[in-house]
């Protein structure tokens, strides 16, 4: 996997909608034909897409899956406002202008063979993409914890992959990851069957507590989700002295580094600095992000 940003490999493509499925709570899974984006995307990359020809400002969405051979790119998004509401109306066969892939992707450390993937809500997509890449590298043994406070956009199934450190009865898993042989567990405060009733980070703590010191030293955390969740992930990483990479979301206008509309405060060895989420991120070292600002 490549940690470099992709500013010289951002393409604008007229992507054809291949499928567009509606799920509970205004969630959608959209698959489009966009071969150049599919060929260059890395886990953590996002696209800036035109939700409707009448809406000038594009909206950013993380990439959930790609098939470079078939040339498609898939997204999971929630219709929360005007832009994503218009996007939800696009049908199979429509054309969507897509700019991407954009951003600095996740960069798993070669010696940290137990990646812990934590995705919350519409932060799940980059974790699925990362899991897809990691499963092709047999040295890694990833574990994914996914959380949602609305029904998951897939039918959870009891996992056949046993894990130590996970509370008894927490067996709900994402079928796609299960099919890939990657253990996953789901968390929610909503009391969904088989899910951990609590936060994703509580479940992560249980799992980390159950590991030997040797195994724990091989863990690296990757996360995407709402800011409070990412702040909790940063604190979890600090408590266990583990490296963590988090993918941030900010309002974006240009998404190519030109407008400085997406800056966040980070702490660098030289002191506080403002970084652009679109091109300096969206993936950052959790220890650097000033979550309170
Ligand atoms: C790098 C990146 C990746 C993203 N990936 C996904 C994804 O995979 N799936 C997904 O559903 N969403 C994702 N988002 C968020 C998505 O871009 C916004 O929900 C979308 O732009 C909202 O546009 P809108 O016109 O529908 O809503 P608006 O009318 O602009 O806003 C509606 C609501 O969404 C909130 N909102 C809007 N934009 C953001 C933002 N950037 N960050 C936090 N809150 C916001 C507003 O506070 C408001 O409550 C991502 C954002 C970024 C920056
Ligand atoms: S959105 Fe313009 S610099 Fe990031």
From TrEMBL:
<feature type="binding site">
    <location>
        <position position="259"/>
    </location>
    <ligand>
        <name>[2Fe-2S] cluster</name>
    </ligand>
</feature>
<comment type="similarity">
    <text>Belongs to the PyrK family.</text>
</comment>
<dbReference type="GO" id="GO:0016491">
    <property type="term" value="F:oxidoreductase activity"/>
</dbReference>
<dbReference type="InterPro" id="IPR019480">
    <property type="entry name" value="Dihydroorotate_DH_Fe-S-bd"/>
</dbReference>
<feature type="domain" description="FAD-binding FR-type">
    <location>
        <begin position="10"/>
        <end position="108"/>
    </location>
</feature>
<protein>
    <submittedName>
        <fullName>Dihydroorotate dehydrogenase electron transfer subunit</fullName>
    </submittedName>
</protein>
<keyword id="KW-0274">FAD</keyword>
<keyword id="KW-0001">2Fe-2S</keyword>
<feature type="binding site">
    <location>
        <position position="254"/>
    </location>
    <ligand>
        <name>[2Fe-2S] cluster</name>
    </ligand>
</feature>
<feature type="binding site">
    <location>
        <position position="278"/>
    </location>
    <ligand>
        <name>[2Fe-2S] cluster</name>
    </ligand>
</feature>
<feature type="binding site">
    <location>
        <position position="262"/>
    </location>
    <ligand>
        <name>[2Fe-2S] cluster</name>
    </ligand>
</feature>
<dbReference type="GO" id="GO:0051537">
    <property type="term" value="F:2 iron, 2 sulfur cluster binding"/>
</dbReference>
<dbReference type="InterPro" id="IPR017938">
    <property type="entry name" value="Riboflavin_synthase-like_b-brl"/>
</dbReference>
<dbReference type="GO" id="GO:0006221">
    <property type="term" value="P:pyrimidine nucleotide biosynthetic process"/>
</dbReference>
<dbReference type="Pfam" id="PF10418">
    <property type="entry name" value="DHODB_Fe-S_bind"/>
</dbReference>
<dbReference type="GO" id="GO:0050660">
    <property type="term" value="F:flavin adenine dinucleotide binding"/>
</dbReference>
<keyword id="KW-0408">Iron</keyword>
<dbReference type="InterPro" id="IPR037117">
    <property type="entry name" value="Dihydroorotate_DH_ele_sf"/>
</dbReference>
<keyword id="KW-0285">Flavoprotein</keyword>
<dbReference type="InterPro" id="IPR017927">
    <property type="entry name" value="FAD-bd_FR_type"/>
</dbReference>
<feature type="binding site">
    <location>
        <begin position="83"/>
        <end position="84"/>
    </location>
    <ligand>
        <name>FAD</name>
    </ligand>
</feature>
<keyword id="KW-0813">Transport</keyword>
<keyword id="KW-0249">Electron transport</keyword>
<dbReference type="InterPro" id="IPR012165">
    <property type="entry name" value="Cyt_c3_hydrogenase_gsu"/>
</dbReference>
<keyword id="KW-0479">Metal-binding</keyword>
<dbReference type="InterPro" id="IPR039261">
    <property type="entry name" value="FNR_nucleotide-bd"/>
</dbReference>
<feature type="binding site">
    <location>
        <begin position="59"/>
        <end position="62"/>
    </location>
    <ligand>
        <name>FAD</name>
    </ligand>
</feature>
<keyword id="KW-0411">Iron-sulfur</keyword>
<dbReference type="GO" id="GO:0046872">
    <property type="term" value="F:metal ion binding"/>
</dbReference>
<dbReference type="InterPro" id="IPR050353">
    <property type="entry name" value="PyrK_electron_transfer"/>
</dbReference>
């Amino acid at each position: 996997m490549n940690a470099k940003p992709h500013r010289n490999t951002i393409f604008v493509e007229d992507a054809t909608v291949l499928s567009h499925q509606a799920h509970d709570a205004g969630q959608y899974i959209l698959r489009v034909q966009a071969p150049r984006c599919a060929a260059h995307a890395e886990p953590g990359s996002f696209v800036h897409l035109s939700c409707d020809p009448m809406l000038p400002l594009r909206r950013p969405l993380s990439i959930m899956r790609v098939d470079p051979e078939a040339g498609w790119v898939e997204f999971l998004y929630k219709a929360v406002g005007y832009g994503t509401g218009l996007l939800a109306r696009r049908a199979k066969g429509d054309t969507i202008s897509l700019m991407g892939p954009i951003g600095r992707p996740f960069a798993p450390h070669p010696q940290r063979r137990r990646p812990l993937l934590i995705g919350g809500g519409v932060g799940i997509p980059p974790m699925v993409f990362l899991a897809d890449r990691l499963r092709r590298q047999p040295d890694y043994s990833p574990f994914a914890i996914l959380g949602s406070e609305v029904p998951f956009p897939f039918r959870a199934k009891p996992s056949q992959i046993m894990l130590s450190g996970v509370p008894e009865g927490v067996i709900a898993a994402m079928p796609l990851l299960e099919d890939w042989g990657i253990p996953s567990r789901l968390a929610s405060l909503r009391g969904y069957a088989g899910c951990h009733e609590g936060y994703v980070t509580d479940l992560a703590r249980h799992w980390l507590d159950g590991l030997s010191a040797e195994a724990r030293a091989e863990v690296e955390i990757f996360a995407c989700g709402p800011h409070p969740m990412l702040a909790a992930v940063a604190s979890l990483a600090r408590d266990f002295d583990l490296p963590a990479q988090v993918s941030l979301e900010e309002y974006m206008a240009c998404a190519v580094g030109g407008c400085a509309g997406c800056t966040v405060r980070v702490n660098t060895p030289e002191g506080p600095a403002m970084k652009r989420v679109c091109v300096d991120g969206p993936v950052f070292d959790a220890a650097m992000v000033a979550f309170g600002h």
